[in-house]
Amino acid sequence: MNDDRPRLAGRRIVVGVTGSIATYKAVTLVRLLQQSGATVDVAMTRAATRFVTALTFESLTQRPAVTDLMALDADRRIAHVELAEAADAVVVAPATANAIAEMAVGLVRNPVTAIACAGRGRVVVAPAMDAGMWTHPATERNVETLRGFGYLVIEPGFGALASGLTGAGRLAEPATIVEAMERLFARSGDLEGLRIVVSAGGTREPLDPVRFIGNRSSGKMGVAIAEAARDRGASVTLIAGALSVASPGGVTVVEAPTAASMREAVLRSAPGADIVVMAAAVSDFAPSRASQRKIKRDGAPLRIDLVPNPDIIAEVAEMPAEVRPFLIGFAAETNDMEANATGKLRDKGLDLIVANEIGGPFDAIGSDENKVAVFGREGNLTDWPMLPKRQVAERLWDLIADRYRGQESSTDPSAPRGASRRS
Ligand code: CTP
Which of the chain's ends, N or C, has fewer CB atoms near its CB within 10 Å? Predict the structure, then answer.
């Protein structure tokens, strides 16, 4: 089930390099694309060749770099047209303000914009420029035009720029660009048609208008799960508790800062969903009452009465079979992970539970990586190493999709959805 082949194996990718102080980063990009299994060709503008020579790229790719719009390939065919037709994707990185403007109006004055224009595959654009150029209305309009063509624009980062200024305009890191390319080709569409609800982040139970009881959950794992499902074609609702990361585009986001609001949002969306993943860290208790006014310090000890919150996932599990979605819970445990996780799976009536250890030498909370084990009713289903959360999310979807479809195919097609689920 785990596909450990490089993600871009068998893909042909053209890296279109334009002239920027960030041109040198295209060298790393080419290396990383190759490491991910892609066959890489390089096209360059004349300005790009003033920053890094074609020889550098030719040595890496062992293929000729196209630097001349009029160049013919070894078979006397027009090199940029041949490349454009063969490529699964063209990634213009770095893309200058000028290259973006040319692509937006369809000017093909160099091999890079010519290949982007003539290609049949996906076009990915990674801008790099000074902050003033990036935020200029002309560039903003041109970038919107490219998005309208269906190009994937990888937002530049914020930081120190070559001009000495600080702002947005730094070329995205090569690893980020490669991840975006991998996502582009990731088993695209295998969750097409599925309605998926993911909860993420911690809940905050108010004590007064400014204070709350909360937890350290960052929401990174849940957000990665939502993003991966989106990229694989699902229609995704993210029920967002407190997140320390931006909520993703292309999904319906429902803000649910407290356990009560999360319960309401989950119970409202679950009956229409095929799959629900409860990655949120829901507070088990809430103050019995929240003060309307800020609680004042008066030197006396303060007692707070906490009352248990309802178990949201257990309520979803109890839904009538015809509306009950396939249900995945999470278990963050400091000890006895397997026993605790499988106990929760059983007691809450879940289909799968994703367990991870917290509080040890490695703390998954807030980290960009995670090591998880997934348990079904028959026991541990996985032996996965520590992985970036996005990769954990991809593997989870491989597993969940497999299980979900297995269960669907064992259902009488005339039976209502979920009828065979409860044992
Ligand atoms: N969960 C929920 N509602 C709650 C508490 C937890 O839906 N009030 C969900 C979580 O989103 C997660 C799973 O239940 O998917 C397990 O959460 P966890 O906090 O580990 O479980 P608890 O039952 O609260 O157990 P513990 O006593 O270990 O906190």
Answer: C
